Automatic annotation (TrEMBL), chains A, B:
Segments forming domain HTH gntR-type: 6-74
Keywords: DNA-binding, Transcription, Transcription regulation
Taxonomic path: Bacteria, Pseudomonadati, Pseudomonadota, Alphaproteobacteria, Caulobacterales
MF GO annotations: DNA binding; DNA-binding transcription factor activity
Organism for this UniProt entry: Brevundimonas mediterranea
Pfam families listed in its UniProt record: GntR, UTRA
TM helices/strands, residue ranges: none
Protein name stated in the entry: DNA-binding GntR family transcriptional regulator
PROSITE patterns the UniProt entry points to: HTH_GNTR
GO biological process, one term: negative regulation of DNA-templated transcription
Domain of life: Bacteria
Alphabetical list of InterPro entries matching this protein: Bact_HTH_transcr_reg, Chorismate_lyase_/UTRA_dom_sf, Tscrpt_reg_HTH_GntR, UTRA, WH-like_DNA-bd_sf, WH_DNA-bd_sf
DNA sequence: CTTCAATTTTGGTATAGACCAGATGAAGGG
DNA sequence: CCCTTCATCTGGTCTATACCAAAATTGAAG
């Protein structure tokens, strides 16, 4: 897998990357269309697309389906251990944060959830699906499950902000321990659609389980992030 | 970006995924060649490749350049906060771990490293490049920088194991705090070649800065992981 | 048996053309 | 002004073909 430095698509990649780095194309701006990028100079559209895929994998550009290719804004720095503040985090970085609640339902505890919460199958749970955006671009979708016994009537509270704050102020539930699992993944059917990206694009799957001081699971959160939208930063004291 | 369930390449993807899930193709086994997968049934090779790329992004298969496509083994679970034990971690999961030292050199502190270590530009540093493999497949390359003033003659110690153990036993340097930055990225020229993957494939960039009790940086480590080789798991107590 | 050269197979790159569905924007109707 | 309609533009998918370089295999020679 040596790079002979003569591959056509890498040359095209470099040409576009240079225009972006030079400021000719700014974050959020649309690139010329694939057919315009061919310029008539004997370059097949497939080669142009290969270069665009490369830039996309590097997080330099992104696409909106059938709309065009755009220059990526800088990623958001995110510390999963300080989960109380997606909104304030993003805004502290000078960006505009939005949260949409896609759905909120009461569900019966599934066999998959039962061992996590230590509750019987069928026990009432709340499930909340939210989409969060930065500067108008959807960057993550998440599904949160909360034990209804711990937070009765949770769904009547405002859910477009910090859920942890709601749990603390309305139910006096404080999170004492946090388990975070992260794995690079491909965004498939459901998540890809919610994030308006093509199925199969790389993403990051973050699963967060929050416990209170008694060791009860108070929040189970599965997040799917666009791969180019975030930078994870964790600061840890050694045990 | 809806999925009409009638896309040809997704059908091919599902067919191959089924054969893998059904156990017909086992982890580590080679898939039939792209031309064999066409079976003569009016499917262009480009469509077959599109399906293979999809499976690759999902971490189900991987490729070796011009050798073929292979079924991915399960990922390694890795806790970056317990960095002392890559080898023991991997072996505790029943896998075979290897570490190769690609290079070890004494360098002069660069302008980029100076503020990290709080040392003047030109101060002596050690730089170690290693490649680590699981079951014979390279999964990460890392570049470690250590202040030579803290660990004189470090390079004469064995470096194919745990560096943190060496620092502790030979120099009595204990790590007290750890900062971990992670960002999905594309594996480009250098790292891609070391990992024997195609440039542009998604990966995970992990930057780890280790401090001792006095706040001095004792280790600065930049790791590039194959995206499908690991699952990150962090357990955190709330501050 | 091992060693080395030649052959075959494989994925990687590239071109050219075609059609489709969703996004976009302009034109027209209310 | 807003809303709808429609033509156009855009990326998404697909076929067919060609050549290349590296890997894997074969086969001959030692």
């Amino acid at each position: 897998m040596t790079q002979p430095d003569s591959l056509h698509y890498l040359g095209v990649r470099d040409a576009i990357a240079t225009r972006i780095a030079g400021g000719e194309l700014k974050p959020g701006e649309r690139l010329p269309s694939e057919r315009q990028l061919q310029v008539g100079g004997g370059v097949a559209r497939g080669t142009i697309r290969e270069a665009l895929f490369q830039l996309e994998a590097e997080g330099i550009i992104y696409r909106k389906d059938r709309s065009g290719w755009y220059v990526s804004p800088p990623p958001v720095v995110y510390d999963p251990t300080r989960w109380e503040g997606f909104m304030s985090y993003v805004e502290a970085q000078g960006r505009r944060a939005e949260t949409e609640t896609l759905s909120k339902t009461e569900i019966a505890c599934t066999p998959a959830l039962a061992p996590i919460f230590g509750r019987p199958v069928g026990a009432p749970m709340y499930r909340i699906r939210r989409r969060r955006s930065v500067d108008g671009r959807a960057v993550l979708v998440e599904t949160i499950v909360v034990d209804a016994a711990l937070a009765p009537d949770l769904l009547s509270h405002p859910l477009d902000g910090s859920l942890t704050s709601v749990l603390k102020s309305a139910y006096n539930i404080a999170v004492a321990r946090n388990r975070v699992d992260m794995q690079p993944c491909a965004l498939t059917r459901g998540e890809a659609e919610a994030l308006q990206v093509k199925s199969g694009l790389p993403g990051l799957n973050v699963v967060r389980t929050s416990y209170d001081a008694q060791g009860r699971v108070v929040e189970f959160d599965r997040e799917y992030w666009r791969h180019d939208a975030l930078k994870i930063s964790v600061d840890i004291r050694v045990r």
